[in-house]
Design a protein that fits this description.
Strand content: 35-45%
Shape: globular
Distance between the termini: 53 Å
Largest sheet: 11 strands, mixed
Number of strands: 46
Number of helices: 9
Helix content: under 10%
Bound molecules: copper (II) ion
Radius of gyration: 27 Å
Length: 664
């Protein structure tokens, strides 16, 4: 949701922040829409016609539920990959084959709110194989295959609500995690039917570790760890010396359940939770967990049958930290932390408290010493709380207001976004000194450096993903476009190069050199490998068949006709299934399929693929169908008819392509 640029005075008072401080910060309230863009900025983002961008930028669509792909540095939108929301353009969620991808324990869900893309990693470095993304509302994680730029699998996360601190990965993508934003009552119906006012007693969180199969990309839940009822916000895996640990920011340690903007902003410090996931993995392997109820769907796209396959699971393995000392620790972190980021060396963990006026940097070495020495200040719901001073590397003092999220370059620098003061601040991780700052337009949320949350940042740019654009673009009615801003970080000073508008809310993003993705591209699906039960591998295999009230059409497309393209004998009351196989075997020759009156979207069928459109005719008549994707000079000739007769008709069922020798 877009919000006004500044927090209200009231909110700031509650946050314990002086209003005067807000107004005195640089970049807090830009007075002009003009920004200093130096003379060669245009040249730095200009990608000559016919040449490619240097980076792929995978940007979440926020409330669109999708994943958008841009080129950097141009900011050109290349594709919107449908993930959690139906997509009429591609037929995703409309074709019979894709509907299964959106099945959950709550039935077919055509939408979600996607926040955090995360590239798969090998040895702590993004490898260009997959991009994960979370669905917040109906908790799910999706895996997008970067060979096809399609959603390959989606797993539902049971015992979860508001799947926000997700789907961050371990260094070899052994696991991606999912933490609950909303704590909720768990268990069976009787256990869940409790008064909201019993939050402290009955509401619990958990963090899930999801394992993607390295070969197939099919996902399963390895284990969940039960946690106290707080709100988990973001997370990152340790690396290098901190490999084997995971860190989650959490807010609402007040355990409020109403008016959180006030009631969850009371404590000076919330927590970062440290999870020893190697220990959890060992405990799970040793059979130490308990299987608890947790019905969830795991959906997977089979590229041989061109269809979704769903498996339904009734329970999950859960580890209770009370039974396993050493599994979880809390570290105090000021104040309502959002970002929870590990630097490229793996030595430091940065917390970004939304209501804090400093940035705490924790030392993994000190965390381990504090754990060994039992250097705790107490416990929270039975989980040890390490002493803040004992685990702290140091604080960045007065960096700005409303620190949200931090990424890194390869030279020991951190870049932190500041929502309230609308700026990016660059600081040195070892020295904790601010070295540069630059305003954003306006109210930056997440930021992104290519590879900037990995062991090997590629650097070169930092991109701001902003919540408000106000006057940056031509206005478009009550809703203005949202926006990203590209800055160069090559020199000592950050330099604004480009604004580009985005689809949906650009919540978070990742970027990777294009050369790591381009060689993986699937150009078409081999027709001989098509195992779809209704495939027609040539026009000779096309047919029309009645199965009771169902009429099945084995149909093919090739430039520029359908076979069959005249179908008769369909009767009112029938359900017609058009199984459309695209016979083309070349790159970038999709064919579309649409029929008049279909309460459905089009099909967009890639070469070698079969997809099915279900159509229930509502009236007697002759119904045109046509190819929707401009495929050839004679695309406009690519059409046909379906005759629908009354229910008691005796018109024989047939499908044919008349005059097939005419120019084919
Ligand atoms: Cu066509």
């Amino acid at each position: 949701m877009k919000r006004p640029l500044m927090l209200t005075t009231g909110t700031l008072t509650l946050a314990g922040l002086a209003f005067v401080l807000v107004n005195s910060l640089p970049g807090c309230r830009p007075t002009t829409t003009q920004t200093v863009v130096t003379g060669d900025a245009a040249a730095k983002v200009y990608v000559k016609p016919g040449t490619h961008d240097e980076f792929y930028n995978f940007v979440s669509g926020g409330f669109s539920g999708q994943l958008a792909v841009y080129g950097l540095p141009s900011g050109r939108l290349l594709r919107e990959v449908p993930v959690f929301s139906v997509d009429p353009e591609s037929g995703y969620g409309y074709s019979e084959e894709t509907k299964g991808m959106l099945m959950t324990s709550s039935g077919f869900i055509p939408w979600d709110d996607s926040h955090h893309p995360e590239l798969s990693q090998t040895d702590g470095v993004p490898d260009g194989k997959w991009c994960f993304i979370n669905g917040n509302n109906t908790p799910r994680i999706a895996l997008v295959d970067l060979g096809t730029f399609r959603t390959k699998s989606i797993i539902e996360i049971p015992n979860s609500a508001g799947n926000h601190s997700s789907p961050f990965t371990t260094g070899n993508s052994e696991y991606v995690v999912a933490g609950t934003r909303f704590s909720v009552p768990m268990g069976d119906d009787a256990a869940r039917d409790v008064s909201i006012s019993t939050y402290k007693e009955n509401f619990k969180g958990n963090v899930s570790f999801i394992h993607p199969d390295p070969g197939t990309g099919r996902m399963s839940i390895a284990f969940q760890i039960a946690t106290p009822g707080v709100n988990f916000d973001l997370s990152h895996a340790g690396k290098g010396p901190s490999e084997g640990w995971f860190f989650f920011s959490c807010y609402n340690t007040e355990q409020a359940y109403s008016l959180l903007e006030v009631n969850a902003s009371q404590r000076d410090k919330d927590f970062i939770m440290a999870v020893n996931w190697k220990l959890a993995e060992q405990l799970a392997k040793d059979g130490k967990g308990t299987r608890v109820p947790g019905k969830h769907y795991s959906n997977w796209w089979n590229e041989e049958t061109h269809s979704a396959e769903t498996t339904v699971h009734e329970d999950v393995l859960q580890l209770d930290p009370k039974d396993h000392p050493g599994l979880l620790y809390f570290m105090p972190c000021p104040k309502s932390p959002h970002g929870c980021d590990v630097d490229p060396t793996g030595k430091y963990i940065v917390g970004s408290g939304k209501l804090a006026a400093l940035i705490p940097v924790f030392s993994f070495e000190k965390i381990q010493k504090a754990i060994a020495a039992n250097d705790v200040e107490g416990d929270f719901a039975g989980i040890p709380v390490l002493k803040y001073e004992s685990v702290l590397h140091g604080e960045v003092k007065k960096p700005g207001l409303g620190p949200l999220h931090t990424e890194f370059d390869a030279n020991g620098n951190a870049y932190t976004s500041f929502f309230v003061s609308s700026e990016i601040v660059k600081w040195n991780v070892e020295k904790l000194e601010v070295v540069d700052r630059v305003p954003t337009y306006y109210s930056i949320g997440h930021l992104m450096v290519p590879g900037g949350d990995s062991k090997k940042p590629w650097g070169k740019y930092v991109v701001a993903y902003n919540k408000i654009t106000k006057d940056r673009y031509l206005p478009t009615g009550p809703e203005l476009t949202q926006s990203a801003q590209l800055y160069s970080i090559d020199g000592d000073k950050m330099e604004l190069l480009l604004d580009f508008p985005t689809t949906g809310e650009p919540h978070y993003a990742q970027a990777i050199p294009a050369d790591l993705v381009k060689p993986r591209e699937v150009k078409f699906f081999k027709i001989e490998e098509n195992k779809h039960p209704f495939v027609a591998k040539g026009e000779k295999e096309t047919k029309v068949e009645r199965r009771g009230k169902e009429v099945h059409v084995w149909m093919t497309t090739i430039r520029s006709h359908f076979a069959p393209d005249n179908i008769e004998g369909v009767k009112l009351g029938d359900e017609v299934y058009f199984h459309v196989t695209n016979l083309e075997q070349d790159w970038d020759v999709p064919h579309g399929f649409a029929i008049k009156g279909a309460a459905n979207a089009e099909l967009l069928v890639m070469p070698g693929e079969t997809q099915t459109l279900k159509w229930i005719p509502t009236r007697v008549g002759v119904w045109p169908m046509y190819c929707t994707d401009f495929c050839s000079a004679l695309h406009q000739e690519m059409q046909g008819y379906v005759r629908v007769s009354p229910a008691n008709s005796t018109v024989p069922l047939k499908g044919e392509t008349v005059s097939v020798d005419a120019g084919v």
